[in-house]
Amino acid sequence: MLQKISRAANGLLNGAIAVSLASMALLVFGNVVLRYAFNSGITWSEEMSRFLFVWMVFFGAIAALKDKMHLGVDLVVNLLPKTLKRIVFVISNLCVLFILWLLLDGSWKMTVLNMDSIAPATGISLSWVYGIGLVTSLAMAAIIITNMVKVLFAKDKDDSFKLIAAVDDVSVEQKEIREG
């Protein structure tokens, strides 16, 4: 059941990233063609592309966390015994949860503050732009909590302690997902 939800969420996340990127490319390319070929343009294209870029970057941060692809140095952690690895993993993830709480709190305040502010070209409420911080912090917190539960209740799984994944680990994991 959880794997189905995870796959659906992963598909939704990848779809949102792809739609954001494709929309940005179409808007910018279309605007360039209109400017040079017809001496006109789409007035809201640049602003909407900027908003889509912000959302795409935040969605990408969620995807990177899910795949353990954020930058990290695990040289010392890999040398630790299993019990200490577990302790370091939990402490580091609690620190990340605290940072995500700060992101959630700040995003909430900015979203509420800008609810009545309207973007000049698109007419979209700026709360939609700042709201991505809410989505990101909640999604990342769910990923972190899930990883912590797996580590705390897993039996003899050394790879679950990893804070970051090597490129080889990710390619093997993606191959298993495609086949399974």
Give a short overview:
With 180 residues, the chain is an all-alpha fold.
Structural notes for this entry:
The chain has helices at 2-38, 45-66, 75-79, 82-113, 127-130, 132-153, 167-179. With 180 residues, the protein is mainly α. It has one domain (2-179). Its main location: membrane. InterPro entries: DctQ, TRAP_DctQ.
Tell me the count of domains: 1
What is the 3D form? elongated
Computed CA radius of gyration, to the nearest angstrom: 20 Å
Largest sheet: none
Based on secondary structure, the structural category is mainly alpha
Question: Counting H and I runs of at least 4 residues, what is the number of helices?
Answer: 7
Encode the helix/strand succession as letters: HHHHHHH
Strand content is under 5%
Beta strands, count: 0
Low-confidence stretches: none
Fraction of residues in H or I helices: over 70%
What's the rounded overall pLDDT mean? 87
Report, as a whole number of angstroms, the end-to-end distance.
15 Å
Keywords: Cell inner membrane, Cell membrane, Membrane, Transmembrane, Transmembrane helix, Transport
Family: Belongs to the TRAP transporter small permease family.
Transmembrane segments: 12-36, 48-65, 86-104, 124-145
Main location: membrane
